Task: structure prediction
Amino acid sequence: MATALIPAVALTACSEDNEPISGADTGDGSGKFVLATTVSGSAGSQSVLVTGPSLDEGSLDVSAGLVNDGATQWVFYKNFLYALTYNQGNAGTTRSYILGTDGRMQARDQTFTMKNRFSSYGTYDNDIIAMSTGAGPVKGENGYAPMTLLVTYLDVYNESMRNNDPSDGRYSMENFLGNGEYVTLAGAEQSGSKLYCGAVPMGLSQYGVADGDGQWIRNDDEVGDLSRLVHDTAGGSGGGSYSAGELVGTQYPNECWVAIYDNDDFLNPKLAKTTKISTPCGRYRSQYYQTVWAADNGDIYVFSASYSITMTDDSQKTRLPAGVCRIKAGTTEFDDSYYCNIQEQTPGKNRSFMRCWPAGGNRFLMVMYDRALTEASPAATELAIFDADTKKLTYVTGLPENVSSIGKTVYNQNGYVYIPVNVENEYPAIYAIRTSDATATKGVTVGANDITGFGYMTPAK
Result:
């Protein structure tokens, strides 16, 4: 892609009722939209944070932006911007940024190397929470270390970091669901004082296989003896590596579990279960994407991409289609009256999704695959709006035909949801999607290779 930069244009747009639809600042003029971008040139690729007044029109020049180290995931929270870096199965790093009163981005003083890697993240009160499940610090009686929840808390106001203490065994994720398997958590969604996390069963660790001399290895008429799934040798790489003596992947793919905590200490959860949908997460390599979200009224909608359909062994493939269930606000049980089969509303009735986010009211924006997960190289390059009230999935119209990837962050206001769309051989842009009819309109264009995240910020107090 050419690296010529496009001049910035200061434009704003209004909705039919004359209210700003982009969230552009209407007070003292201090607020800005912040876009994380990457730009390639002769010296290689650079990450640049650029600011602008609007998402709806115009173009932005990145030449005056703040060059930075980039991120796996940009998290905008309470007028702070955090750069979380995954680091391929190792500990992650982070740095945070604020918007200065001059309208330019500024790096804060602290850079942290997180003690633990992260596979998912969320927020609660003043903290950004990064989570993963890994071997605990103390071995059990069978000689193996139980898989343990490892949590990093990033206090955005105090610019500090702390970790949970797994040394006493309270954070063991072994036998979390009562079937011997360990779990990891996908996302952390706050509704009131409660924290809702998708519980993703990972199979039997070395600890789980050895526990009770193999008592948790499933052996019944439905699936047969699953001891055939226990690995004899180590293999895989990065976050997908495994050891000899593990059974990778759940033996119970036709269940969905949500862990509900009273606060963010991640202790003593209430477990909600349904057999109407499968695992509550989206998936890309070692990242587990949050699909448990609160609507504006506090109801929790739990989406399942049915990702286990891609497993090799038939006993580990779910028979449940991609769908959504609900936990009503303030409750800890699934609402038996609510279920929607999302998959049957897709072309061919066989497609799923990678990610989803709240889009205002009881509507959600979904990043859809262009073919079934079981087909070769499915690409998540389509968008749809799901209306939880009508249980209707509507594919977004008005997107370009040469989409190369969809962004990782969204912003919604006044019936519109905004998301970056990266395209082949052109500059990327933010698209505004009207959630009432799923129509997309091209907004601000950025002179970069891609947009990796964006949000709205005012100078932090």
Residues 1-27 have pLDDT under 50 and may be disordered.
